[in-house]
Write a structure and sequence with these properties.
CATH architecture of the largest domain in chain A: Alpha-Beta Complex
Low-confidence stretches of chain A: 1-12
Order of helices and strands of chain A: HEEEHEEEEHEHEHEHEHEHEHEHE
Largest sheet of chain A: 7 strands, mixed
Structural class of chain A: alpha/beta
CATH class of the largest domain in chain A: Alpha Beta
CATH topology of the largest domain in chain A: Quinone Oxidoreductase, Chain A, domain 1
Radius of gyration of chain A: 21 Å
Oligomer: homodimer
Mean pLDDT of chain A: 92
Chain lengths: 348, 348
């Protein structure tokens, strides 16, 4: 392969390119909870590069709740993940061969190369990453899609004013952790909701939220009421169900709700909003969103996020599983809330 | 009284001012459905006018669903109606005595004088009405608060574009009838939901909606699906519950929902939104509103509504009960959907 006429750059500078790599495909669709047997790991050949294509060695894979929706055949906001195809997923890595004029071997890039150790993409579909200020995996978290989801929902939907109170569910997660810190920087009182004392301690003591309610302690409504003495002006919802109900009950007039995720119902539970009257009585605004539909705002948002991380003003935590084969179990753990912060898989 | 030094204008031009009038007070709060005994009619003395006050003979009283909320002690968006006080209500009538420089005997005025044959208010709290282009009672309907609720929810929340499909519940009512006609004028396909074949015929044949689904026919979901072949881009919700669920199920991505009323649950039923996931999956925007909180837009909206009525482009229908004593039963009928169009009470 090192002498292939298709890969002159590789032949000169990266003779160590493997002939094969591993990937994980969707073997079957879950009925109820996701199970390890819904996935299958397999070895595939490294393909030859076409014009303008780039071969990337993925260093990290991002695991995100949205993948659960893609695993279902049911109509969602995006096409289903096809069976027997590589599981969708955001990745960061390094170029190991390039037939794209703008991409050189050794460049750090982000892309959507899936649950796989390597991947090929048109160079135009990859984003070059500057790792001098921000570490590579952070581009999958606080300065990536989760950070942008936080930034978009907060700045475009909740539009918080200093002095207002915000509630953030899944507060220790990749999105919630950024929401709360951005809101604190904007002068808000921020109350997180998370599962367990350890997560809540992290949310308060490391991330700097004003308070964090442990929904597993069994007093969600009362504890949230105690933590929001002035009511709630904004809700950033990642979970749904009981946490959303509890936050809605505390809303002030004209509160705004950014509906980013409903991870609480990924196994098919109905997620009713029991008291729809409160939406009218309190004149609430609620909007569901998908951050990848608002790419025009990414440059602005990523610039803010990158600068804050570089300055040490936006903290993050990564839960890192080791090796591609660990991805299915790590993903199942993510859906069960076992991770703290951004769930990654270290690949190479 | 005609010689009272407080009422010089009256003494000259309106010697027929009665000494007493009738009003209806809230006698008790409903537990469950509103009952006639929650009200009491009584006779009170016409008071002397203070500086800048005006005495008005009410010709029409408006009955509106919001009054049901005020009758409860439960915290709502407005203060509760106090027991033993005149029931709140919008009225139109004529000035019969005035100590306000801008108001003359004979002027037509609108105000919030309640369930009463007469009332006193500061002249500044009354709005002079031009009855040369629009008949007096229309200022309680299509060119009043219900019309403005329709105009606000449609233009400020749904913001429809030509070619889009809108669903309007309580389509034959005071608000819904205006929503649909305004949306038709903006080039939309408009589908109403109403109860009974007669109301649906009115909605289609008189008001000009493209279709109307009779929810009492028992096939709400299937009938609404058939009437919305291109999906739904906007929902103007006056009822809640099953009609909202059925409309949500038909939404296209980025549909907007104006939550104006939830009359389906006024007797205390929970009104769950069973499938909150659809708000996320379809990236819906939902906003509850109270039109009296947006008075800055009333001049603009009323101007459009008044011009359309005057030009015959905005049709309306009034259900008129005769005499103050008929108001409680007419109000109960309104809550049960017995009216067609705007429910009024003719007082004098």
């Amino acid at each position: 392969m090192s002498t292939s006429p298709d890969l002159p750059a590789v032949a000169r500078s990266a003779p160590e390119i493997p002939r094969h790599y591993q990937r994980i495909v969707l073997a079957s669709r879950p009925r109820g909870p996701v199970l390890p047997e819904n996935f299958r790991i397999e070895t595939v050949a490294v393909p030859a590069l076409g014009d303008s294509e780039v071969l990337v060695r993925n260093h990290y894979l991002s695991l995100d709740p949205y993948m659960r929706g893609r695993m279902s055949a049911a109509k969602s906001y995006a096409a289903s993940q096809e069976l027997e195809h590589t599981m969708i997923g955001n990745t960061v890595g390094q170029v190991v061969a390039s037939r794209h004029a703008g991409m050189a071997v050794g460049d750090y890039v982000g892309g959507l190369l899936g649950w796989a150790e390597m991947g090929v993409a048109d160079g135009a579909a990859l984003r070059k990453l500057d790792v001098t200020q921000v570490a590579l995996p952070v581009y999958l978290g606080a300065v990536g899609m989760p950070g942008m989801a936080a930034w978009y929902g907060l700045t475009q939907i909740i539009q918080p004013k200093a002095g207002e109170t915000l509630v953030v569910s899944a507060a220790s997660g990749a999105v919630g952790s950024v929401v709360g810190q951005l809101a604190k920087l904007r002068g808000c009182r921020v109350v997180g909701i998370a599962g367990g004392a350890a997560k809540c301690a992290h949310v308060r003591d490391v991330l700097g939220f004003d308070a964090c309610v442990d929904y597993k302690a069994g007093n969600l409504e009362a504890d949230l009421a105690a933590a929001t003495p002035d009511g709630v002006d904004g809700i950033f919802e990642n979970v749904g169900g009981a946490t959303l109900e509890a936050a809605l009950a505390r809303t002030n007039a004209f509160a705004r709700i950014a509906l980013c995720g409903l991870i609480g119902g990924f196994n098919g539970q109905e997620m009713p909003i029991k008291n729809s009257r409160i939406l009218l009585i309190r004149r609430l605004s609620l909007r569901g969103f998908i951050v990848t539909e608002h790419m025009e705002l990414w440059p602005q948002g990523l610039q803010e996020l990158q600068a804050l991380v570089a300055a040490g003003k936006l903290k993050y935590h990564h839960s890192v599983a080791q090796g591609l084969a660990s991805a299915p179990q790590a993903f199942i753990g993510l859906l069960q809330g076992q991770n703290l912060g951004k769930q990654l898989v270290k690949l190479n």
